[in-house]
Write a structure and sequence with these properties.
One of its GO terms (biological process) is thiamine diphosphate biosynthetic process. With 264 residues, the chain is an alpha/beta fold. It has 8 helices and 10 strands.
Length: 264
C-alpha cells in the first residue's frame, strides 16, 4: 500500500535535495564521531565554520574534507565567529577560494560572544555585498519578519531565523513570529539554532519550514550518533504531518465514532 505524498522538492541554488536536515560539523569529540553522526543523520548539506576548520588552508593538519568529501556532501561554509560585515565578507571570499569557486555560503554575523544573537545591521550590510559578488547566500537572522523580508529583497536564497539562541536547546521560543515569516516568505525558510531534541525539529517542520539546520542538538547529545538518526526521522515526520494537515483543536472531546444509526 503506497502513501501519496504531494510535496514540492527542496531546492537550494538550483540543486534538489532529498534530506531536509542540514547539520553542522563542530563540537564533536573527534573526526570519526563527526563522520558517523553525519552519516546517521542522512544529511546531504553540511555546514563548516571556515575560521575554525581546516579545509586545506593548513597543510599537514587533519582536513575535514577527507571525511566529508564534496562529491558526496554539499559543503556549506559559514561565517561563524564573525562580528562585522567586513569580516564576514572576507571569510566568504576565503571559502570560495578554498572550495574552487563554490558560491553557496551561510552568512552569520554575531552581535556578542555571550548570546551569539545575530547583528542584523551588519548582516544586512554583508548580504548586500555578497549577493552583488555572486554568492548564493543563506542567512542566519533573528525571528523579526521585517528583517527576514529585507534579506529576501536583497537577494538571499534562504532565510534562517533562529528558534532559540545558538547552543541553548530551548526549542522554538517564538512560533508566532516564525509563522509570520513563513506566511510572507517567497524563498525557503529554515530554522537555524535553538533545536534541542527531535520534537523541536518536528515542530519546526510542522509549522511549514523547508528544512532545519542543527549542530549542538546532535553533537552535545549523550549519544550523538543515535540522536542524529532520531533527527532524521523527526524531520520526515514533521514534514509529512505538515503536508497531511492536523486535525482542528477543540476545547471538549468528541466521540471517535458517531452515535447516529446505532441499534437500540
Amino acid at each position: 500500500m503506497s502513501t501519496v505524498r504531494s510535496d514540492k522538492p527542496f531546492v537550494l541554488a538550483g540543486r534538489t535535495y532529498q534530506s531536509r536536515l542540514l547539520v553542522g560539523t563542530g563540537k564533536y569529540r573527534d573526526m570519526e564521531e563527526t563522520r558517523l553522526a553525519i552519516e546517521a543523520s542522512g544529511a546531504e548539506i553540511v555546514t563548516v565554520a571556515v575560521r575554525r576548520t581546516n579545509l586545506g588552508q593548513n597543510p599537514g593538519e587533519p582536513n575535514l574534507l577527507d571525511i566529508l568529501p564534496p562529491d558526496r556532501y554539499t559543503i556549506l561554509p559559514n561565517t561563524a565567529g564573525c562580528y562585522d560585515a567586513i569580516e564576514a565578507v572576507r571569510t566568504c571570499r576565503l571559502a570560495r577560494e578554498l572550495l574552487d569557486g563554490h558560491n553557496l555560503v551561510k552568512l552569520e554575523v554575531l552581535a556578542d560572544q555571550k548570546t551569539l544573537f545575530p547583528n542584523v545591521i551588519e548582516t544586512l550590510k554583508a548580504a548586500e555585498v555578497l549577493v552583488k559578488e555572486g554568492f548564493d547566500v543563506m542567512v542566519y537572522t533573528s525571528d523579526d519578519p521585517i528583517i527576514a523580508r529585507q534579506l529576501a529583497e536583497i537577494g538571499c536564497i534562504a532565510v534562517m531565523p533562529l528558534a532559540g539562541l545558538i547552543g541553548t536547546g530551548l526549542g522554538i521560543c517564538n512560533p508566532y513570529n516564525l509563522q509570520i515569516i513563513l506566511e510572507e516568505a517567497k524563498i525557503p525558510v529554515l530554522v537555524d539554532a535553538g533545536v534541542g531534541t527531535a520534537s523541536d525539529a518536528t515542530i519546526a517542520m510542522e509549522l511549514g519550514c523547508e528544512a532545519v539546520l542543527m549542530n549542538s542538538a546532535i553533537a552535545h547529545a549523550q549519544q550523538p550518533i543515535l540522536m542524529a538518526e532520531a533527527m532524521k526521522h523527526a524531520i520526515v515526520a514533521g514534514r509529512l504531518a505538515y503536508l497531511a494537515g492536523r486535525m482542528p483543536k477543540k476545547l471538549y472531546a468528541s466521540a471517535s465514532s458517531p452515535l447516529d444509526g446505532l441499534i437500540k
